[in-house]
Amino acid sequence: MLSFTGMGCSLLPEFAVCGLIAVKENECLVCKKTSWNNKIDQSKTEYIKLMQLDLFSARIKEECQIKNHVEPEHGFKADKNWKLYI
Q: pTM surpassing 0.85?
């Protein structure tokens, strides 16, 4: 598990929705999405895909490009292994 100890945030990289290492108590401090965990009935990939569709829905409607990689922002590190599933 990666840890961003300065803010008490952690992340299992493949479970992130937005790709920033900003998860505290299963919720991302940036995108406010719950990271996938074993209490969620859906598969990891399906859950993350649905959450990314919701997170990026405004950009999709405006036909804006969505990057398939994430860059550090809001003071949080980016997960180098993050995937865009949509």
A: no
